[in-house]
Structure formats: C-alpha cells, structure tokens
Amino acid sequence: MKTIAVLTSGGDAPGMNAAIRAVVRTALDKKFTVMGIERGYSGLINGEMIPMERRSVADIIQRGGTILKTARSEEFKTENGRKKAVQMLGKFGIDSLVVIGGDGSFRGAQELSRMSIATVGIPGTIDNDLPYTDFTIGFDTAVNTVLDAINKLRDTSTSHERVSVVEVMGRNCGDIALYSGLAGGAENIILPEKGYDQDKLCKNILEEKIKGKLHNLIVLAEGIGGAEALAKKIQEVTGIEARATKLGHIQRGGSPSCMDRILASRFGYRAVELLEEGKTSRVVGIKGAKIIDLDIDEALSVPRYFDDKLYKIANALA
Ligand code: F6P
User: Fold this and answer.
1) Is 127 a catalytic residue?
2) Residues annotated as binding site for substrate?
3) pLDDT of residue 214
4) Is residue 129 part of a domain?
5) Tally of structural domains, the chain
C-alpha cells in the first residue's frame, strides 16, 4: 500500500488548506496511507510527521493559512539537508510526496525527484509567478483582498482629493497589481514587467488634477519600488497631497475565495491521481479551464509570460 506525504512550503497562500484536504481525502479514498509533514522541508528533515485521517482535514476548507504550517528551509538547500530529508522519508515508509508551494518549493521537489523520490507539485502562492500555469492557489483571494483595500482607499482619496499609492506583493511578478488595478479601476498600475517614467507619471497626475480629477489611485507592485518613496516624490513634484499604503501580509491571509477552493480541490485530486497512475516528478496546473500536468523540469523552464493585452486594457480604461 502506498504512503503519501503532503507538505506546504514557502509563503502561505489562502487555499493551501483546501489543497491539503483534497490530497488527504482523495488518497484515503484510494486506500493509501497519508502523512502530513509540518513546517515544510524543515519539518521533513526533522521528521515532523503526523498521520492524516479524514477528520484531520475537517473544517479547514474555509480557513486561510496552512494547518501544516510552513517554512523556508536553509538546511534543505544544502546537499546534506536533502540527504537527511530522503533518509527521513525512508524511515517513515513514505514513497510519494506532494509539495504545495511556489517556485522555491518546486525547486526543492525537483531536487528530491532527482534523488528518486516520487513527487508531485501543486502550485500554491499568492504571487502567480509560475508561468506554466494560468493561476496558482491563493492568487484570486489575494487579489480580492487588495481590491477591497482599493475600494476603501478610493473613498478617502476622493474625500481629501489626494493621490493614493498602494503597494502590493508579488515579488518580481506584477500580476497581483495588474489584476487588482484593472478590477479596481486604478488610474495607474506600475509593474516590474513594464517599468515606468516617474516624471511622466507626475506630469499626468498634475494634468488630471487640473482637468478636475478628485483622486488618483496608483497600484504599485513591490517588485518595482516602495509606496512611501513614490508618494513622497509625487507630493514634492506636483504639490498634491499623496499618501502611501503598504498592504503587506494582509494579502496572504483570509478565507480563500470560491475560485481558490475549487482550484485547490481540483489540483489536490489530480495530484493523487497522478501518483496512483505512477506518474511522478510532475506538477499540476490550469490552462484555460483544463487541469494539466507536466514534467517538473519542463514546468520550471517555461519562460515568464506577461499579459500585455490585459495591461493595455487596464490603461485604456483607466
Ligand atoms: O511569495 C509570497 C510573498 O508574500 C511575496 O509576495 C513577498 O515578496 C514575500 O512572500 C514576503 O515574504 P515573507 O513572508 O518572508 O516576508
């Protein structure tokens, strides 16, 4: 009988719990034994394993964060750390591993699969920075969290006739900024993929103000700068009051959206199916409406994709 283990690694993302639930329940239905590994690769090295039953994942589909906890392990990046991890899997009789996480976590899974461990990756990160898949678990919820903040900031910006700069997460990926900026009707969306001209931005803000615009909402991706510095610069150059809001880790928490719960459930189910079919060293994803899977090496070498059309639409409608 197969023993499958599941772990969450890297930054947490809303919907990770729904994915854990799907992996555990699908695997149990297929009569596999399931273990949860706490604290990602760090817990794997230390043997922090817990047996998972159907009830272990009851009442978690609606919860943000991850019941398995997460970590970024420096030790696992070393050869010695990875050897310990493989030994630990052997000690607990685990033959297959499901890794839920982002790019860094997948690189860990890739290393393990090179050491003959049967792995399947489920993309879980708010950043949406894994180009082989249209969406990652947590992105939709994070965008909705940002959107809620944008709606609120618009109220106060309009009342005070101010510029509002909102800094959002995403590392080097501008997707959170692009989606929330478009959906929130932001006047300006600043992304690492596109860069921007600060003087031109200030000139536009001033021109819009003269035309009677009551507010100017700028969504700034963290990968291209800080909100504080930009707001200060805008105020200095234009003379218009500007305020900065850094949303920070609020974007990582909260109850997952319907989209994320369904995505996580589909991913978790497919991940276990793959292991049952003996297909390993793979990752699951979504393209259009279809759940896909591909080789982990291939997935990690897909070049970054930027949705220029969406950016164009956002600018045209701003
Ligand atoms: O990868 C998710 C993410 O939230 C990024 O958007 C952000 O840059 C980073 O993690 C923050 O990391 P930490 O939680 O370690 O501060």
Assistant:
1) yes
2) 125-127, 162, 169-171, 222, 243, 249-252
3) 85
4) yes
5) 2
Whether residue 119 is found in the same domain as residue 15 = yes
Share of the chain above pLDDT 90, in %: 98
Nearest to 173 by CA among 257, 102, 71: 102
Based on the fold, state whether residues 265 and 149 are members of the same structural domain.
no
Return the CATH number at 60: 3.40.50.450
- By percentage, how much of the chain surpasses pLDDT 70? 100
Calculate the dihedral angle through the C-alpha atoms of 133, 137, 142, 147, rounding to the nearest 10 degrees: 60
**Could you report the per-residue pLDDT of 236-246, keeping only the tens digit for each?**
999 999 999 99
Beta-bridge partners for 36: 6, 50
Both tokens of residue 33?
């034994």
Determine if ligand 1 sits within 6 Å of the CB of residue 167.
no
Answering whether pTM is above 0.90, one says: yes
Provide the H-helix boundaries in the chain: 16-29, 40-46, 79-91, 103-114, 139-160, 175-183, 198-210, 227-238, 258-276, 296-300, 308-317
| Sign of the CA dihedral running 180, 135, 223, 74 | positive
| Structural domain contains residue 179 | yes
Using a 6 Å cutoff on CB, does residue 81 contact ligand 1?
A: no
The torsion angles phi and psi of 214, rounded to 5 degrees, stand at -80, -30
Structural domain that includes position 226:
141-252
Nearest atom, ligand 1, residue 251 CA: 4
**Measured distance CA(43)–CA(234) in Å, rounded:** 46
Burial 3-23, CB ≥16 within 10 A → b, else e: bbbbbbbbbbbbbbbbbbbbb
> Strand, coil or helix: what is 188?
strand
* Whether the CB of 101 sits within 6 Å of ligand 1: no
Which of 169, 179, 180 gets mutated to test ligand 1 (max ligand atoms within 8 A of its CB)? 169
